[in-house]
Amino acid sequence: MTSYAHILKPLHLGFTTIKNRVVMGSMHTGLEDRFYNYPKLAAYFGERAKGGVGLIITGGISPNRQGWLLPAGGTMNSLADIPHHRLVTHAVHKHGGKILMQILHAGRYGYQPFIVSASPIKSPISPFKPRQMSEKNILDTIEDYARCSELAKKAGYDGIEIMGSEGYLLNQFLSRHVNQREDRWGGAIENRMRFAIEIVKAIREKVGEKFIISFRLSMLDLVHDGNTMQEVIIVAKALEKVGVTLLNTGIGWHEARVPTIVTSVPRAAFVDYTAYVKQHVTIPVIASNRINMPDVAENILATGKADMIQMARPLLADAFWVTKVATNRVDEINTCIACNQACLDHTFKNQRATCLVNPRAAYETELTYIKTKKPKKIAVVGGGVAGMSAATVAASRGHQVTLFEASHDVGGQFNLAKVVPGKEEFHETIRYFKVQIEKTGVDLRLNTRVNREQLEREGFDEVIVATGVIPRQLKIQGSDAPQVLSYAEVLKGASVGHKVAVIGAGGIGFDVSEFLLRPEHQPQPQPLAQWQREWGIDPMPDYITEGGLVPTELEPPVRQIYLLQRKTSPLGVGLGKTSGWVHRAQLKKHAVRMMRGVQYKAVTNEGLWIELDGHDQLLRVDTIVVCAGQESVKDIMPKEDENTLAHYHIIGGAKLAAELDAKRAIREGAELAAKL
Ligand code: NAP
Ligand code: SF4
Question: Where do transmembrane segments lie in this chain (predicted)?
Answer without folding.
Answer: none
